[in-house]
Amino acid sequence: MESCMLTHWIRVKMMKNIQIFLIVFLTILFVQAYPGYSQKQQEIELMPLAEFNIQAPVGKLRAIPVQLNSKTRGILLAYSADKEIDPWIEMFYPPTDRMKIAVYSIEGQKIWERELGKGVINGIWFTPVYAFDMDQDGTDEIYYVNNIDSVHILSYEGLRLAAIDGSTGKDLGSWPWKRVEQGSLSHTFRNFIMGGYVHGKPVLITAQGTYASMGIQVWNPGMNQRWELLIGKDEPGPRGSHMSPVIDINSDGVDDLLWGERCIELDRGKYLFIADRDVYSGHSDVIQPTLHWPDNRWYIFTCRETGDQGQIKPRVVMFDEGGNRVWHDLETGHMDMGWTAHTGPEDKTVAFTISRGKKVAGPDGFFRLDVVEYAYEAFSGNPVNLPFSAYNTVPVDLNGDGFHEFASALDEQSDKKIYDHQGRVIGDLGEKAYLAMASKFLDRPGEQILCYYPDGRIVIWGDKNAVDSPRAVKRYQHPYYRQCQRLTGTGYNLVNLGGL
User: 377: exposed, middle or buried (C-beta count within 10 Å: 0-12, 13-18, 19+)?
Assistant: First the structure.
């Protein structure tokens, strides 16, 4: 009996020792795979990672990562001395400066620059800019909407889709820009350029319109049209959005375009769904795909303007990946701007939007009046109170922990601070800073922020102590991540990565 008890004791002891060994061994493997995560994440220490000057006054600048060759990335800048020029007649004003497109190295060395024609307007709706490798030679082409009429800056017949080489700035081609039914100035000049993949093959997307008639075209390499979809102003269903995410929402190997609440697959141009097709015909400012990480399912956060022909319908709606309502809120209000973001360390997903009164814009910039903020638990719709003003913020993961901080530097009403999820100020971008890009575009841990300043300075900010967690690495490697990075020169797509 004693011999059996001794044998049992030895076996239990050996099992415990084996368990301890496995725990230690796996911990060592984890620390080797993710250095720095054996210790508590350090406080964020904001610092300039790169700084240069483009030697020109800047009113509005857009920035896009651009692939210069198979190994080297640069930064594409599109800018002029004018503030954003919007096509709505109460916000439009004549440009005073020619728009430029330039490519700089990550270190801030100018590689090339082009000054565009007198008919090209530095406005995101007039002149979208997009970097994409259609011929798959390892170098991005730069696509933009050109106006070859140097006298009539509002010419519609003079518009062209232009392509230039991302590494040299040399012309590659020009094609007539597709036109939809002309209406008011605001309806006519709403142009988009995006890109996606169909079973690994690139396709280019061009689109026109937002509020009434709309057109979408998809092009194969060589600029052969794959398909075109025309949406008449009287067709049922929602209109377009100021955001234009491209995402493989059903994981079938074919990317899909979220054109407002219309989800269109890029292979043949067929609808996967039109959310709220028979109950809403207005326009949503925000279309934000949001990933529910535990089950790898997408949701779509939408925030709606007025302009729905008198319909009283929810202004804030969360849909599932099939276009079905999950929750909704607010029966009235002009919703404007918004995002979703993943906050730590308790791993909450927050949805945020504002309602506004009048919007004023011109040579002095954008100003929104009577702003009211709303925030929700993203997947339940339960209201939450954020510990900071999220108006004019962009989610960004500076320290690489896989969760978002919030940079307030979108326009003249921003306070230029960076907040953590507790509302603490953890950084200051400078009084005159304007954010143009927030993602991982440098080969270092964490995400970075590119800011421009009126005197032509470009500063890339980051966290000195950043360490990429497994969750952050998973974000960076997600196909949607690179798609979002490409969209910062077209539409209001600066906040898309908050949903991932």
Answer: middle
Query: Among 59, 41, 133, which residue's Cα sits nearest to residue 95?
Result: 59
pLDDT tens, position by position, 46-65: 999 999 999 999 999 999 99
Q: 140 - beta bridge partners? A: none
Per DSSP, the three-state class of 368 is strand
CA gap 271, 264 in Å, rounded: 4
Q: How far is CA 315 from CA 308, 357, 490, in A?
A: 11, 15, 24
Angstrom distance (rounded) from CA 477 to CA 147: 37
Tokens linked to 114: 């082009």
CA 185, distance to chain mean position in Å, is 26
What b/e readout covers 195-232, taking b as 16+ CB neighbours within 10 angstroms? bbbbeeebbbbbbbbbbbbbbbbbbeeeeeebbebebe
User: Over the chain, what is the mean pLDDT?
Assistant: 91
Helix, strand, coil percentages, rounded to 5, for the chain:
10, 40, 50
| Strand pairing report for 316-320 and 297-304 | antiparallel
Which residue shows structure tokens 């949701």? 299
Collapse the DSSP code of 240 into the 3-class scheme (helix H, G, I; strand E, B; otherwise coil) and give the result: coil
Question: Model's pTM, two decimal places?
Answer: 0.90
The three-state secondary structure class of 428 is strand
- State the Cα–Cα distance between residues 214 and 231, nearest whole angstrom: 5
Structure tokens at 12: 């239990």
78: enclosing H helix or E strand: strand 73-80
Structure tokens at 392: 């004019």
Q: Do you know the residue count of the chain?
A: 500
Q: Which residues of 79-117 are buried (b: 16+ CB within 10 A; e: fewer)?
A: bbbbbbbbbeeebbeebeeebbbbbbebeeeebbeeebe
Contact 285, 302 (CB under 8 A): no
- For residue 367, the cross-strand partners are 360
E strands within 19-140? 46-53, 60-67, 73-80, 100-105, 110-115, 129-132
* pLDDT for the residue 457: 98
User: How does DSSP classify residue 372?
Assistant: E
Rounded to whole angstroms, the Cα distance separating 354 from 376 reads 12
Contact criterion met (CB below 8 Å) for 285 and 337: yes
Question: In the structure, what pLDDT confidence band is assigned to residue 173 with cuts at 50, 70 and 90?
Answer: very high
